[in-house]
Design a protein that fits this description.
By secondary structure, the chain is of the alpha/beta class. Helix content is 49%, strand content 17%. The protein has helices at 3-6, 21-34, 41-54, 115-126, 132-138, 142-150, 181-197, 217-222, 250-255, 257-265, 281-317, 322-340, 342-355, 360-369, 372-378; strands at 12-16, 63-64, 67-70, 77-87, 99-108, 160-161, 169-175, 200-207, 210-212, 225-230, 245-248, 272-274. 41% of the residues are buried.
């Protein structure tokens, strides 16, 4: 998939008179709906605005990249607006940022990890490149804007930033809830700083396209500075046991890249610093709760399907029939018991989000003991 498949002139509002964040997002959602990319514009607008609450999507140089991953998105699309009047009230990583260039990214929830993710991540990474946003701001027509965006296609990503064996070696992991925007912009920001300083650098991204540029234990042990710029639990976090690192949120590292990297370099062996992620405690708590819910939902879906199959078969064959008693009646019972395990899954992954793998099994057992599942299996 190429950029030409994701954005076209009909999805661009150039030098429009929209004056608030809500107006801009609603107008771009409408464009996506008219393009046929959305089944429900109301549902997608709700998804995007919920994402806005969790962390700022405004960046710097007048840029903002609201985005949403939803089942209502039929295929990936990008809608763009450039406003005549900058919007100062758009929450941004840079407190002085006044937004006038907006990229609304729509991602199908069921297609994470497919080809279009590579294209989108390359675009979001390009926002961190020197001069790219300025080039977009200075375009005069939709065609010029599209040409600037399409030019990103040929750029190849550097896995390891330039440097010599004598230079400091920086490694990092980046991850955000949607795995699209902040994940890759934070990675690009870290790489750009290291390149300018002459440091060697490798950044592992854990995004919608899976784990890329995975760090080995040898690389982690060799590193002079380690940064975990993450808003969600990461895979294989045990690799960093005993290592010295700075843990920080993605939006915070975008705001204080130099300070974060230089702090990581100065840490003593085994020292861990958890910096302010830029989110308040309420948002942090909600992120943990949402992590638990996201793992609980598949359990509820499976339980619902089993219960539905049991009820439907009872209507078709009758509750007194042999086939129902001997076979289909079991679906309802299994579905009921599956439903009851949702407490264990919620508790386990809520704890995993907060404290990592060591908390998973104890919390799972605790969740099992809170409900009828435990009494049925363990009371006798």
């Amino acid at each position: 998939m190429k950029f030409k498949d994701l954005v076209n002139s009909s999805l661009i509002l150039l030098d429009c008179g929209l004056e608030t964040k809500e107006e801009v997002i609603k107008s771009l959602v409408e464009k996506l709906y008219e393009d046929g990319a959305l089944e429900s514009k109301e549902e997608f607008y709700k998804t995007v605005m919920e994402r806005e609450v969790s962390s700022p999507t405004g960046l710097e140089e007048g840029l903002a990249i609201p985005h949403g991953k939803s089942t209502t998105v039929k295929y990936p699309r990008i809608a763009i607006a450039r406003t005549k009047t900058p919007i100062a009230e758009w929450e941004s990583v840079d407190d002085e940022n006044e937004v006038n260039l907006v990229f609304l990214i729509a991602i199908p929830k069921a297609e994470s990890g497919s080809t279009h993710i590579d294209v989108l991540t390359k675009l979001t990474s390009s926002f961190m490149a020197d001069g790219f946003v300025e080039e977009l701001q200075n375009t005069k027509t939709k065609e010029e804007l599209l040409e600037a965006i399409y030019s990103v296609e040929g750029k190849e990503e550097e896995v390891l930033a330039a440097g010599t064996k004598e230079d400091k070696f920086i490694v990092a992991v980046t991850a955000c809830p949607t795995g699209i925007a902040h994940t890759f912009m934070a990675a690009e920001k870290i790489k750009n700083y290291c390149k300018n300083k002459g440091y060697r650098c490798k950044v592992e991204t854990q995004g919608s396209d899976g784990v890329k540029n995975k760090l080995s234990i040898a690389e982690i042990n060799e590193a002079d500075g380690i940064i975990l710029a993450v808003d969600v639990p990461i895979q294989d976090d045990h690799r960093f046991d005993g290592a010295n690192y700075v843990k920080i949120g993605t939006q915070a590292v975008l705001k204080s890249t130099e300070e974060t990297i230089e702090k990581a370099v100065k840490l003593e062996k085994g020292e861990v610093v958890e910096s302010d992620s830029g989110t308040n405690r309420t948002n942090a708590f909600l992120q943990h709760v949402m992590a638990g819910i996201s793992y609980m939902i598949p359990v509820l879906v499976l339980a619902g399907l089993l219960l539905a199959m049991g009820n439907i078969s009872a209507e078709i064959f009758g509750k007194d029939s042999a086939i129902y008693k001997d076979f289909f009646s079991k679906f309802g019972a299994i579905g009921f018991m599956t439903m009851k395990t949702m407490y264990a899954f919620f508790a386990g992954y809520l704890a995993y989000s907060i404290a990592g793998k060591p908390a998973l099994v104890p919390a799972f057992i605790g969740g099992m003991m809170t409900d009828e599942t435990y009494r049925r299996f363990c009371s006798k």
